[in-house]
Amino acid sequence: MIGIVKNTLPGGRDMNALQTLRAASERGLQGVLFNTLTDISATLDPAEMEAVRAEADRLGLRLSANLGFLNPALPFRCQPIADAGNGDLEAGLRRLIGLAADAGIHDLMFVVGMIEERFRSDVSWQAQCDAVAALVSRVAPLLRERRSRLLIKTHEEITTAEILEIIRKTGPDLLGVAYDPVNVVCRMEDPVAAARRIAPYTAQLHIDDAVVRFQDGGIRRFLAPVGEGVVDWDAIFALMPTAFRWVETHIGQFAMPVFDPEWLRAQPGIAVEEFASVLAMATAFGDRDIPWDQTKPADRLPQTFGKLLK
């Protein structure tokens, strides 16, 4: 089953929800992941959301959605969710879980923060992860009642080991994983080794590719067409055969100062073997120029669709 993230769909940013569904169906896709629930209904109107659900059912499409940032330790990141609860983050989360379930969406993805959150001095990274676990635990009765689950994304700021620790605290019935392999190299994790760790909890698999290249002081991630990057998709598909696959083009070219002792101290769980694996990827790429225009992620889509829809 293959779907697409709304803003990845060509022209998707300018489409309303019904137009997005029809465009995805015309491309032979099986689902749409909306970037926010307000992409389905700007006012979170239940009737509008039900109309979108009905059209998705008619077209045989699966619906999913992204909550955005969910990090109670940094309230400014979560303002859209708090707004849904009249300024109360937990109330907003509860409302969105209920609205999503009513629209047939029972897997809601979220990210903890931006890459710089990991290195903040005012609120520790551990405190941020603990706050996420505590909030998920508080809404546990509602999640179970609505037969829903939150999915924490392997975003650029978090390691798979840290995600597993949050799942251990909350329970896998409440929290699963949206696995995005191009992001784990930013935490010096090998994409296949990371997939092996989180496979039992992964409900979504996000499809894109990337390379890493040495630069002064470390390495940098650049995006690449599927099949031309470092992600071993055949191995990952074999590890996660039932995960729903979402096409998602990325744009960030993140730098990793991998030889900086302070940077390394901020992520003590790095495995030597995987650190070496990511460096080997950079070595293999060498000093070649990046041949893909990083400002035009849509250029990668034909190759992605060619690989996935054959």
Short description:
With 310 residues, this protein is of the alpha/beta class.
Describe this structure in words.
This protein has 310 residues and is α/β, with parallel strands linked by helices. It has 13 helices and eleven strands. The protein has an eight-stranded parallel barrel, surrounded by five helices. Helix 2 links the parallel strand 2 (31-34) and strand 3. Helix 1 (17-26) runs parallel beside helix 2 and helix 5 runs parallel beside helix 7 (160-170).
Number of strands: 11
Provide the succession of SSEs.
Answer: EHEHEHHEHHEHEHHEEEHEEHHH
Q: Major β-sheet, in short? A: 8 strands, parallel, barrel
Determine the structural class based on helices, strands and strand pairing: alpha/beta
